[in-house]
Amino acid sequence: MSRRGGRRHRCSSGEFTGGQRSTVRQRDEHRRPGRITEQHPDRRQVDVAGFVAHRFSMMHTHFDATVTSRHSVAGMDPDSTIRTASDDDAEFIYHEWDRRTRAHDIDGLLELYTPDAVLETPLIPRILDRRSGVLTGREQIRPFFQRGTDNRPNDLVRWYRTGRYHFDGQTLMWEYPRAHADGGDQVDLAEVMDLRGPQIAHHRIYWGWFGTALLVPHPGDG
Fold it and tell me: Does residue 76 carry a pLDDT above 80?
């Protein structure tokens, strides 16, 4: 409360945001030991440390709730990463996908994909005459692999890898770098695969600057 024109005036909550300094009355017997208080000229006291600690506690609680909520929406435990495949599954896919692709083993290659698998690559519109670069299911994916096999061998598709890959329990990634170990260039690709056990559930292929030029149609291309 404050005095205005000799009368007592009760401050509304909105006045605490005004230009004048606000104070909070606090009885001495309610002050906690060790708290720092600020004495104002009108003898009202503000528990500065208590106020800051209270606000920080509210912010921290809100942050924890927000983070937990985001993990819950994603179906994830905040303290762990859900594994959809094992390290052995990832190593199997890493070696077998490359081996079966090189061998033109389309049936064996499709076995590495779940029945409802999704494949995304900018090469799909280029060789299948489609507007979309997304295929869903083995029956849609098969013609893509068949056309890719029919167009090989290709001097720029040399399948060189470094032997290193990354796997986080869900997503497997490796690269076919542009610079070949024996010299020269090859189509530069990054393979990104979401695994479900020893199978691929979602496969995305990203092209580097060198290989991208091959995606542009040229006169006479079939």
Answer: no
